[in-house]
Design a protein that fits this description.
60 residues
């Protein structure tokens, strides 16, 4: 079974999102208040218990 998790960098470490936001503003000349950049991970062949452990580690 495939499990999916979305991850967002913490505030202060979200440099790629800030760079993309600036690029949108400069290149497309549009007003955007903020931008969130999420990364999706698909996990296969991992038990539910181990998956939960991994998710908890990502919250630290």
């Amino acid at each position: 079974m495939v499990k999916r998790i979305y991850v967002e960098k913490r505030k202060g470490f979200d440099v790629p999102a800030k760079q993309l936001l600036d690029d949108f503003k400069d290149t497309l000349d549009i007003r955007i208040d903020g931008l969130r950049l999420l990364v999706r991970y698909d996990v296969e062949d991992l038990s539910d218990e181990d998956f939960i452990k991994c998710v908890r580690l990502s919250l630290i």
